[in-house]
């Protein structure tokens, strides 16, 4: 029988999937920390891992943390590397590695695939992914979408089957409004009842994170405002008490809402608002291109008006795990849980517009490159992550753009300081900017707004020293024309998405 392996996207190391349970190691960890409360974090993704670190580094040192993830090809490597002392998150925030090293030094952070860990937990934090499936037509229009809850329900069941009767379960996962009351609570009640345990002692609450996986990654959890609720007053009180031990609530006071439906709605409304703002900017970037207008100049002028200071610049499109799905999740809930027949049409349209942006970006680039040879033209992409300062490529708009570009050009290389392996495409990525630019590309396309590019004067020097003149296409408005060699302005070798050239 062939061994199944899980490959790390950080180190490239392979780890064989376990074939036995992990009960003994979990028990040993719990015994080591008998004087502490055990917090189990379900889901070791970009939220769950850092939330685990924040809890493990709480100011009073009162918690030991067990992180849980599935033993699958995609996920198991995180468990293996955490326990080996390797941080599974690549970030521009130095606090991520600092908090990780502190937790490992204190031996109060352990990772496992065995749900038996929930039986030791005083607090369970749910940070698993909940996806939205989309069906689109050939033009990118959304024909239908759904929120498949089967996996999420199974995850909640795994808690209810072994948890303590008085456990606090805190859902951080972004869920359709109504999920805690209509899905999570009934599952837990049924599970406890089947075990012959009382069903009125456990606490259930919802508190959504506002994680910003960039230079302020850790502080976006530890030192930032939180909204929370519970299915009843006792649950809300328990959530409040816990959050006050891990978040700097003196500087960033908690906001308590009346129901879990309220906090669930707050999260998807918050993200839908941002998605719609981006969609708005995208539509106007297309207009600016056709009209020969510099949209950045226009936006800067408008931003002087205080009421319009948050008007956004154009870009290659929305990526990441939240803005690409949360408006759809909200619309789904409005129909499925609360009977609103029309759903949330503006929110759905915003996702549709954002999803189409990589297609528009490709059309913009292909028009510039229409006379370049498929076989001989070398193209370099700067950035594959979905946003600045992060190593997350999930739902990155660059993926769709790259796929379209690779259908027309054979020689494409990618660089990203935070992504050594592009997992979705199984591509090794160059992390050194200097090593990358030595290639002297014909075309250089900026696709992610990393600070490493905007604040790095070396990029301009390396471009100036290139062995041949290149065309630069900036899809995120990052580079400064005035810092580029003169021929870029003279020969119009510099193109910015959202800045029209008035050319035939």
Summarize the structure.
With 504 residues, the chain is α/β, with parallel strands linked by helices.
What does it look like?
The chain has 17 helices and 19 strands. It is an alpha/beta fold and 504 residues long. It has two domains: 5-258, 3-Layer(aba) Sandwich (Rossmann fold), CATH 3.40.50.720; 278-496, Rossmann fold, CATH 3.40.50.720. It has an eight-stranded mixed beta sheet, sandwiched between helices. A five-stranded parallel beta sheet has the order 14-13-17-18-19. Strands 1-2 form a two-stranded antiparallel sheet. Helix 9 crosses helix 11 (326-336), helix 11 runs antiparallel to helix 12 and helix 12 (345-368) runs parallel beside helix 13 (397-406). The N and C termini lie far apart (62 Å).
């Amino acid at each position: 029988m062939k061994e199944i392996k899980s490959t790390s996207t950080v180190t490239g190391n392979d780890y064989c999937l376990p074939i036995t349970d992990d009960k003994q190691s979990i028990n040993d960890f719990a015994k080591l920390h008998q004087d502490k409360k055990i917090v189990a974090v379900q889901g070791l993704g970009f939220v769950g891992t850092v939330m685990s670190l924040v809890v493990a580094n709480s100011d009073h040192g009162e918690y030991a943390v067990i992180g849980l993830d599935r033993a699958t090809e995609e996920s198991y490597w995180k468990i293996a590397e955490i326990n080996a002392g390797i941080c599974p998150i690549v970030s521009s925030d130095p606090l991520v590695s600092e908090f990780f090293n502190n937790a490992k030094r204190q031996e109060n952070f352990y990772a496992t695939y065995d749900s038996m860990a929930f039986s030791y937990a005083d607090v369970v934090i749910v940070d698993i992914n909940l996806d939205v499936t989309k069906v689109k037509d050939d033009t990118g229009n959304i024909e239908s979408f759904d929120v498949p809850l089967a996996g999420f329900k199974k995850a909640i069941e795994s808690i209810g089957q072994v948890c303590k009767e008085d456990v606090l379960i805190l859902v951080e996962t972004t869920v359709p409004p109504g999920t805690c009351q209509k899905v999570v609570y009934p599952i837990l009640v049924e599970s406890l009842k089947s075990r012959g345990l009382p069903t009125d002692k456990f606490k259930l609450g919802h508190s959504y994170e506002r994680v910003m996986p960039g230079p302020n990654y850790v502080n976006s959890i530890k030192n930032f405002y939180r909204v929370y609720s519970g299915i009843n007053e006792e649950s809300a009180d328990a959530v409040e008490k816990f959050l006050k031990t891990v978040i700097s609530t003196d500087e960033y006071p908690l906001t308590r809402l009346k129901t879990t439906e309220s906090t669930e709605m707050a999260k998807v409304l918050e993200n839908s608002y941002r998605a719609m703002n981006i969609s708005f900017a995208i539509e106007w970037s297309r207009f600016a291109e056709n009209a020969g207008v510099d949209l950045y100049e226009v936006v800067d002028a408008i931003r002087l008006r205080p009421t319009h200071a948050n008007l956004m610049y154009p870009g290659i499109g929305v990526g990441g795990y939240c803005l690409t799905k949360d408006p759809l999740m909200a619309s789904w809930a409005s129909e499925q849980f609360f009977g609103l027949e029309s759903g949330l049409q503006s929110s759905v349209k915003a996702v549709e517009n954002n999803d189409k942006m990589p297609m528009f970006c490709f059309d913009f680039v292909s028009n510039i490159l229409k006379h370049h040879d498929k076989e001989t033209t070398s193209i370099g992409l700067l950035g594959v992550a979905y946003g600045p300062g992060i190593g997350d490529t999930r739902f990155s708009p660059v993926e769709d753009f790259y796929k379209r570009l690779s259908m027309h050009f054979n020689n494409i290389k990618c660089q990203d300081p935070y992504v050594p392996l592009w997992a979705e495409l199984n591509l090794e990525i160059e992390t050194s900017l200097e090593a990358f630019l030595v290639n002297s590309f014909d075309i250089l396309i900026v696709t992610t707004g990393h600070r490493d590019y905007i604040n790095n004067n070396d990029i301009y020097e390396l471009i100036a020293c290139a062995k041949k003149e290149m065309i630069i296409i900036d899809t995120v408005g990052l580079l400064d024309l005035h810092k580029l060699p003169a021929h870029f302005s003279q020969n119009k070798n510099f193109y910015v998405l959202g800045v029209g050239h008035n050319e035939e």
